Amino acid sequence: MIEPLLPEPLLPETLLTVEGLTKRYGHRLACDSIGFTLDHGEVLAVVGESGSGKSTLLSLIAGEVAADAGSVSYRMRDGATRDLATLSEAERRALMRTDWGFVRQDATQGLRMAVSAGGNVGERLMGVGDRHYGRIRATALDWLARVEIAADRVDDPPTRLSGGMRQRLQIARNLVTAPRLVLMDEPTSGLDVSVQARLLDMIRGLVAELGLAVIIVTHDLAVARLLSHRVLVMRSGRVIETGLTDQVLDDPQAAYTQLLVSSVLAA
Amino acid sequence: MSPQGTVTVSAGTGYNFAYLDEGTKRMIRRAILKAIAIPGYQVPFAAREMPMPYGWGTGGVQVTAAILGAADVLKVIDQGADDTTNAVSIRRFFTATAGVATTTRTAEATVIQTRHRIPEAPLTEGQVLVYQVPIPEPLRFLEPRETETRQLHALAEYGLMHVKLYEDIARHGHIATTYAYPVEVAGRYVMDPSPTPKFDNPKMDDCPALQLFGAGREKRIYAIPPYTQVRSLDFEDHPFRVQRFDRPCALCGAEGVYLDEVILDDAGGRMFVCSDTDHCETRRADGHTGEAA
Amino acid sequence: MTPLLAFEDVAKSFTLHLRDGAVLPVIAGATLAVHSGECVVLGGASGAGKSSLLKMAYGNYRCPQGAVWVRDGARVVNLAAAAPREILALRRTTLSYISQFLRVIPRVGARAVVEAAGIEGGLPLKVARTRAGDLLSRLNLPERLWALPPATFSGGEQQRVNIARGLIAARPILLMDEPTASLDATNRAVVVDLIAEKRAAGTAILGIFHDADVREAVATRIVDVSAFRGAMAA
């Protein structure tokens, strides 16, 4: 059973509070009154099948899609908790490119495909005003090494990198400003199994080392088990079940969760 | 500039003075005034179809038409030269539709329409430099979404512009952008100076003349008011530098000017001459000579 | 003396929604306490609910009825009602669990796996490193394997890594589910010794051991779980 070793949440304070988050597309409820809290350093997996609303939930939290109801509050670096809806667009964007990260399923959505690997990593630094080429490049090289991309690929654009490398580059690009919260939308899907394992292990290591809080959306229960402290099972826009990851996966209560767990192929 | 409220029809052509009708000119002038009020900001305007193809300076021509008065003296240059097809055509266009005086002498002109150069002779108060602009959006090559680039301008998020310069250095070891080198205007908006060589960027800074930019296909006007700070973007460890030429003009011997390479024969013979033909001719008339003269 | 771990009138059943909501009763009326220095071995036939009890003690299974008391320093926490974060905290400080199988983490070497468990349990890096090596040596895992990820190890080798992981940190409560099942006689004897040492150090141990020799060697008390079925309504 259980227990891939997970890092201890460093400061057991609430970092993010989601309340009553609701989004309707026509008659369809993509998210129906979703609520949860996330602590510093805590990893929450949102699992469910395609169309369950899990990716919409991530977009709502990031403020990329406007919610019909509900709120997202975040404890800013200055210690003040702010309702993200009250942030100005400039503040929201500044938050997103410094204290938050967003790793996308589709690397072409999360990277600048025409810009070199180094430029992709350096963008956030330049975005916060670093104007020293040598320093930006050194930091980019350092981060590429941390995500196991060879230094001689620093000037290659993502179009010349493999799928696994693109995802690792996304991670480096996001983590370069030392964010405290990272949203991940199916970061490993579509990759070969061995590549997935490497990426997952890397994410796991970085999360532990940096004490990141993570919300990871995945349909892969093994990913949830390996990375997350807690899990949120979603179906048809609703939270069906939530709790300690190994408890939900090993002793599922809801019929849907039991179906989900029993549908996994054992290797 | 033409006096307000007067409708003048140029003799012989049947067109209104300077081709555009007065309502259109007013619309363009409003856009120009707004552009002057917000230096470097791209003001949308309802660009008209002009009797020339896009890419031939339809934006610059509309701006010139909107500001031209009967007493103005017009100079038109293309790549610094007064005698190239584009320059000659536009000069003839305004001679025919507005009947204004034209000149090739920078010092004599009140309105200078240009493609790809700023004259070598210092511009003065009261002069207007009108740039023809193909692509006004400096961020486009990295961020193709217009909705997003507008946001970036609105929030002054210009990190992306440095990503482009970063890419240059990473690829070429130095900032290899030599044309359309991005500038920050009055400490606020980042602006594409149109495809002028970066050699000319320093001339835009604190310039006594009014600089207007017109993009016809893209329907944008922007401006640098006289005596405005214009700073070329760079990195602390890769500061902005203009091109240097290791020889003087072969015809007039001028140094510190922008030179064009001229191929002389099939045997590799070539020479470097002033791109600004007026500047070169003026110097030669004053008795300066280069090695080929 | 208060026990370190106590079940109080615990009942557990599984509702199988995929089988038309069939309810599978597992255990009822389970009351059991484990004190410091004790090694309580759960007995009873297969399916009697031994593993379920262990898993409830670790918070891995929910406990819908009754209470599972865990002493955490000066306070006593009911695991059945604890929030996920509290359960995770208890696993770091108080509860250790050794299962039958090692869930492998890709790309991490055997020694590093054990060492990380020590660090998570509060050991300083140096101590964790030394102790990980000591434990793997005692469990006869050849040193050439230490740097390799256990994924390619034999069942017995993986299980020894698993045991080392579970024992490295000094947590007051140790839960063991058939830890010796895939071990040979030599290594079974090592585990027996290790358990004795833990007990001597005051650890409260609750375990399942099918092997009669091991059971006899480690148990201070054997509790037949079948007794808890009597109270079941079915």
From TrEMBL, chain A:
Coiled coil: none annotated. Keywords: ATP-binding, Nucleotide-binding. Residues 16-261 form the ABC transporter domain. It holds the Pfam family ABC_tran. It comes from the Bacteria. One of its GO terms (molecular function) is ATP binding. NCBIfam families: CP_lyasePhnK (TIGR02323). Belongs to the ABC transporter superfamily. This is Phosphonates utilization ATP-binding protein PhnK. The gene is phnK.
TrEMBL record, chain B:
The keyword Isomerase does not apply. Its EC number is 4.7.1.1. InterPro entries: PhnJ. It is an enzyme of class 4 (lyase). GO terms for molecular function: lyase activity. It comes from the Bacteria. The keyword Lyase applies. Keywords: 4Fe-4S, Iron, Iron-sulfur, Lyase, Metal-binding, S-adenosyl-L-methionine. It catalyses: alpha-D-ribose 1-methylphosphonate 5-phosphate + AH2 + S-adenosyl-L-methionine = alpha-D-ribose 1,2-cyclic phosphate 5-phosphate + methane + 5'-deoxyadenosine + L-methionine + A + H(+). Catalyzes the breakage of the C-P bond in alpha-D-ribose 1-methylphosphonate 5-phosphate (PRPn) forming alpha-D-ribose. Belongs to the PhnJ family. This is Alpha-D-ribose 1-methylphosphonate 5-phosphate C-P lyase. It comes from Methylobacterium cerastii.
Automatic annotation (TrEMBL), chain C:
Keywords: ATP-binding, Nucleotide-binding. InterPro entries: AAA+_ATPase (IPR003593), ABC_transporter-like_ATP-bd (IPR003439), ABC_transporter-like_CS (IPR017871), CP_lyase_PhnL (IPR012701), P-loop_NTPase (IPR027417). The keyword Nucleotide-binding applies. The keyword Ribosomal protein does not apply. Gene3D superfamilies: P-loop containing nucleotide triphosphate hydrolases (3.40.50.300). It comes from the Bacteria. SMART domains: AAA. Residues 5-234 form the ABC transporter domain. Pfam families: ABC_tran. Belongs to the ABC transporter superfamily. This is Alpha-D-ribose 1-methylphosphonate 5-triphosphate synthase subunit PhnL. The gene is phnL.
